[in-house]
Design a protein that fits this description.
By secondary structure, this protein is α/β, with parallel strands linked by helices. 25% of the residues lie in helices and 25% in strands. It has helices at residues 40-51, 69-85, 98-109, 149-152, 177-183, 187-190; strands at 8-11, 17-23, 30-37, 59-63, 92-96, 116-121, 126-133, 136-137, 142-145, 156-159, 173-174, 196-197. A six-stranded mixed beta sheet has the order 3-2-1-4-5-12. Strands 6, 7, 8, 9, 10 and 11 form a six-stranded mixed beta sheet that branches. Strand 7 (126-133) and strand 8 (136-137) form a beta hairpin. Helix 1 (40-51) runs parallel beside helix 2 (69-85). The longest helix is centred in the middle third of the chain and has 17 residues, at 69-85. The radius of gyration is 17 Å and the shape is globular. The two termini are 29 Å apart. Residues 208-226 have low confidence and may be disordered.
């Protein structure tokens, strides 16, 4: 399990605001936690200044998406700036994906929820979807057209805040990611598998090549799946 005590977290994947926080030394509580509503450019750097004026930390937890490409790349730029200004310190950077983190947070906050899907806007007319079946989170998310969304998923749907009108006929429960994450700072300690070392080049995940991601089908994650 990676040592992530005192790491700074940057999550600007939401179009509504950015999360900037620092874990405590034991990585099980927040030493500081800020949620800045509004554009990432106006939110990340003031919050980062309050957490640590020089972004001094042994490492970063970086949300690589999917989500707001501009926000994610601004967060990546902040981390890359740290490498450029202090090359001798070389902090570690662990990336995580927004949909996977949301799935883990939902499973812990609402243990009665075992079968659901998480939806976030992607390109125009398309949505990123991650499925959870029997409490098992799919390995990858898929990109689905709005018109085909109802055929791809069933059951309860949790959604990141949507800027466009959602497809008709589907009911969404909007996620409060900042609240869920604030209430569960130990999520990364308990689920280190959602982190990956991305070296010194954090960037947004590529959601433009939908064929790179396996579509989620409920039968793939059933008890008798082969």
């Amino acid at each position: 399990m990676p040592e992530i005590g005192n790491f700074i977290l940057l999550d600007a994947s939401s179009p509504e605001g950015a999360i900037v926080a620092r874990l405590s030394a034991d990585a099980c509580s927040w030493a500081q936690f800020f949620y800045e509503k509004g554009p990432a450019l106006e939110g990340i750097f003031p919050a980062l200044e309050r957490v640590s004026p020089r972004a001094e930390a042994p490492g970063f937890l970086f949300c690589e998406g999917p989500g707001s490409i501009l926000g994610i790349r601004i967060a990546a730029m902040a981390i890359r700036t740290k490498f450029a200004l202090s090359p001798a310190t070389m902090p570690r950077v662990f990336a995580f994906q927004s949909l996977t983190l949301a799935a883990k947070l939902i499973l812990q906050a609402f243990p009665q929820e075992r079968d659901f899907a998480i939806v976030a806007e992607s390109r125009m007319g398309k949505f990123n979807v991650l499925g959870v079946k029997g409490g098992m989170v799919a390995e990858r998310f898929s990109e689905v057209s709005g018109a085909g969304l109802s055929q791809e998923i069933g059951g309860k749907i949790f959604a990141f805040p949507l800027r466009r009108t959602p497809p008709s006929g589907l009911e969404f429960t909007t996620l409060d990611m900042a609240g869920l994450l604030r209430d569960n700072p130990a999520i990364f300690h308990h689920h280190p598998e959602i982190l990956r070392d991305c070296g010194d080049k954090p960037d947004a995940v590529n959601t433009t090549a939908a064929t790179d991601y396996a579509k989620w089908k409920p039968q793939r994650h059933g008890a008798n799946a082969g």
